[in-house]
Amino acid sequence: MSQYENIYNEEIDYLNEIINLLNYKLELETEELDGKKIDLIAARREMWENTTHSSSDFDKLSDLNQYLSALQSQTFSYTELAKRISKYEKMLDTPYFAKINFTEEGYDDTEKIYIGTFNLMDEETHDIKIYDWRAPISSIYYRNEPGPVEYMAPAGLIKGNLSLKRQFKITNGNMDYFFDSNINIIDEMLKEALSQNMTSKMKTIVETIQKQQDCIIRDLNNDILTVQGVAGSGKTSVALHRIAFLLYQGLNLKLRSNNIIVISPNSIFSKYISNVLPELGEESIEELTFENIFSKIYNNKLSIKSKSEQLESIICSKTEDERDFLRLYDDFKGSETFLKIIQRFIYYFEHNLIPFEDVYYNGKLIENRNLLKSLLLSGKLNMPTSKKLKILENRVMDKVYDMKKNRLKKIEKVVDNSNRHEFEVKSFSRVLLAKETTALKEKIHKFSEFNCYELYKELFKNKELFYKLSKGLSLPKDIDRIIDYTNESISDPFNIHYSDGIGLMYLKIMAEGCSLFSNIKQVIVDEAQDYYPIHYYLLKHMFREARFTIVGDINQSAEKESNLDIYDEIINIFNKQKSNKIFLTKSYRSSYEINKFCSKLLDKETDVEYFKRHEEKPKIISSTNRNTMEEKILEEIKKYKNQGFESIAIICKSRKESSELYFRLKNVVDIKLIDYISDESITGISILPVYLAKGLEFDAVIVFGTDNERYKTKYDKKLLYIACTRALHRLSLYYTGEISQLLK
Length: 744
Hints:
About 50% of the residues lie in helices and about 15% in strands.
């Protein structure tokens, strides 16, 4: 028998051993789960039958609490067992994907380490049969070639020798093949993974994580980790796998799923990435857009337009002047200059706009307005304005409460002398005292409470004040027009411009503070290039105790100028102790031909390495009129479907154009419209605006209307780049009239 046959038989035997162990565990734990389910139902029935159902029955509430405590423990045990069973079921398909042979320095025995998505232990022997991809020793596989290696374990740095690195292809519990890996073979495995069709959700990449990606995933040292990744470099996927790694470290980091949050560009993207963590055996975490955060901070009492609506307004502007002004408007509202104006306005409000009054009670002056103001401005209270005013209100009310007994006696005398309430003097007097106290509180609230929305309006309504506050700051040349546009934008509290919504959030957090996210310890921010300084200052103040992983691509900024300086600015804004900038320069998503095509849409040479997976070259197709163009597009879709592609996107420049095209094609082909208010998945044939396509990927992409009217400016060039880099296997661009100069 040859050496290969010996190795093959050895690996088949091990796989069969693992499959048998998994089946045994599944049988055992499924039976246990059934028992736990019966016990849980019985316990709930017993609680229902033996406890009170009324909160007014205080005597039996303690019994209810005891039942609830026991039920909570039973439910947790049942849920954890169900999760374990789910993991075993997933492992039956692909129990592991890699193996390393490692000999620790100072020892003779070589450990055979099998690596999979989850841990697997044999409880009888206490042997770890499969190591989780996030285990410290697994990092050897991702980062090293055979030879001397080291890895960081909880006990410290472990050194040794890696003598074997093997990769497996296992499907449905059967061994398809395996390789003893080197860089070239790993690339072949990666090429196979990338050649597959897209699904409706982002897929996990545990089998194909690259060395630099693994360094990002496992970083535990930095408070701020910024990642500039070229289109298709896997930066979003790496950020999500980083969350899974951090949760795996949960006990050490005191981290649970409710301590992590993802700041997502839009709800479509949130839905697209929602499957990654559950596939890795972790609970889903909260994903919020800035629009969601605004609603939380203002408790749904105000409403703002979405960022997508803002982009739509810019793209669909009727004139170049209007388009340039809207960009200028957003640039100003996101700038550090505007932040300084808001900060100065809060200072001005404290010193000049709070209507302090003398407070009288029971015929005596109990608080002087000048003293209240001096206490506010003394500097002893280092906290937001709202909290300082609350302390002053409590100071006044404490004095009132001390005097209430005497006040009640005085009221009782008045009531008694009135001869109208002789049988209810005490109760009627208390009613009068309560009304009087309420009236006094309302009077105090005139200076102890304020409305941030009304304050923001005041800032722009009074131009003289605005210019006074901006003295010494560099303002845009169209500042008068910006002020006028703002007054129009914020007139409707339920239709506020997105940029003003962000300004309103900053004003509220700086003036009132924010404790909504005090439990958050890790924040993931995607599409970093699309955010302004004001966004990062907001994140800094909202998530004060958190560490940040911030990923983006300066070449995919759809609305503003971006360069690599943005990452230094972000690090400076957060001003944390430890930070790191990482660059992912290898693109994996698209075929080599599509990547080379897209590279010509970049303004300058970029340090990008393209993964060499060869397919058809992109096509640029001319038509004499719109009807002909749409007929050709339908033919192209038919061809793509015959080639087996499952997700096909027609990417338009705007939502308006996407909607119009959808209604023209929907009766001819099974197609769905994806926009910022839809809840569609991205399988099948989709039509969507380019700015919603960011972060998504499709088997085939058709870019609609690439003529010189639609795509002609430097911003249009970025939109084209975004659209084209969404394609994995096929890319075609269709136009009528004159082709865009950007494509010539």
